[in-house]
Amino acid sequence: MRIANLVVDTEVLLAPMAAVTDLPFRTICEEHGVGLTITEFLSARALCEGAKKTTQKLTASLDGRRFGVQIFGRELDALAQAALLARDIGASLVDINMGCPAKRVVAGACGSALMKEPELAQQLVRAVRAALPAEIPVTVKHRAGWDEKHQNAPEFACAMVEAGAAMITVHGRTRTQGFSGKSSLTIIRKVRDAVPSQVPVIGNGDVLTLLDYVRMRTETGCDAVMIGRGALGNPWLFRDIRAWLAGEPVPGAPTVEERSAVFLRHVGLMRGRTEDKRLIHEVRKAVAWYTKGLPGSADLRDQSQAPREPDALVAATVDYFAALSRGRPRLRVALAATAGSLVAGADEAPASSGTELGPVAKAAVA
Ligand SMILES: Cc1cc2nc3c(=O)[nH]c(=O)nc-3n(C[C@H](O)[C@H](O)[C@H](O)COP(=O)(O)O)c2cc1C
């Protein structure tokens, strides 16, 4: 897939997720084959003001791997300046968030509220486009629309492209839906049909398994898929998608040993990059992600509230994996179907998927 001059060789992207897609998380996904990662959304104004909490999240991927930075706001100058800060750390693309449904964001008329102001949204894209060198694409991520009656994603996407956006990502829910109901494949299809074919359209929402991926690609015609919650504790989903796209055997869910090793790698990446006082919280999150759905994991997670030292929690988790492996050495558990319940503040976890495939998707995986 090409985003202007940027080539992404595996058509799967990691979705930006606040308080999740930090450098360790992105690195794990990159090491498992994701095509591109993007930082969580960063307030353009906070970046311009040099707010430490925000600027420390502006991080380049390791080992020179390409990455995107997502920014949000509604002030032309702030967005343009923030985009330059992203350029300064080597970002390969700058994405503008026009889909966040959070109250505090829409209260400031940012995020998904911009779908109600397409002209201002266009000016924002133009301002960022004008600020950045030509080789860095400007992209936009938005929702289906504000509410059921205002599903303007196709027109909105075209307006963003006219203003200079080189890629559109659509999460097929409206702002009022939050995370309830299902992401609509139909609206993503409509966006794909409306936007000029040289501009990639990325489908997003509820992709938890390889079958969901195939269904999203085949039923919407999208050029790539962006995955958020399905990647929590399951970077192996990217390995499967990459193998499937390459026509290779799909490795499937990891063994307990692999899971333990990647958990340790993830924690290792946190060390030295996460403030000491935050480390225990981040390790707890990782424990929850990597053990969800496994036998006895609820007990481990309950106990994980007690240790104050990250090392004690890591050791307990490694012991847990070792015991699991001794008892059931060949256990392979797919966690994807349970990932939805980790959404903070979601009205409702997404319906588990990977079951009913449409006829086109069935043919594609057959
Ligand atoms: C915890 C969490 C944080 C999120 N933060 C962001 C964000 O910073 N920027 C953004 O564009 N979307 C954000 N999203 C939305 C996701 O990028 C994605 O559009 C949504 O979760 C649907 O995709 P999924 O079903 O694959 O998770 C967030 C979602 C979650 C669950």
**Largest sheet report:** 8 strands, parallel
Radius of gyration: 20 Å
Q: What's the CATH H-level homologous superfamily of the largest domain?
A: Aldolase class I
Bound compounds: flavin mononucleotide
Instruction: Name the beta content range.
Output: 5-15%
What is the level-2 CATH architecture name of the largest domain? Answer: Alpha-Beta Barrel
**Strands ordered across the widest β-sheet:** 3-10-9-8-7-6-5-4
Could you characterize what this model shows?
About 45% of the residues lie in helices and about 15% in strands. With about 375 residues, the chain is an alpha/beta fold. The chain has two domains: about 10-245, Alpha-Beta Barrel (TIM Barrel); about 255-325, Non-ribosomal Peptide Synthetase Peptidyl Carrier Protein, Chain A. The model is unreliable at about 335-365 (pLDDT under 50). The longest helix has 18 residues, at about 310-325. Strand 1 and strand 2 form a beta hairpin. It has helices at about 25-30, 45-50, 50-55, 75-90, 105, 120-130, 155-165, 185-195, 210-220, 235-245, 255-270, 275-290, 295-305, 310-325, 360-365, and strands at about 1-5, 5, 10-15, 35-45, 65-70, 95-100, 140-145, 170-175, 200-205, 225. The structure holds flavin mononucleotide. Flavin mononucleotide (FMN) binds next to strand 4.
Topology:
Layout: E1 2-3, E2 6-7, E3 12-14, H1 23-31, E4 37-43, H2 44-49, H3 52-55, E5 67-72, H4 76-88, E6 93-98, H5 103-107, H6 118-131, E7 138-145, H7 153-163, E8 168-174, H8 185-194, E9 201-204, H9 210-220, E10 224-227, H10 236-245, H11 256-270, H12 276-291, H13 297-303, H14 310-327, H15 359-365
Parallel strand pairs: 3-10, 4-5, 5-6, 6-7, 7-8, 8-9, 9-10
Antiparallel strand pairs: 1-2
Helix pairs in contact: 1-11, 4-6, 6-7, 7-8, 9-15, 11-12, 11-14, 12-13, 12-14
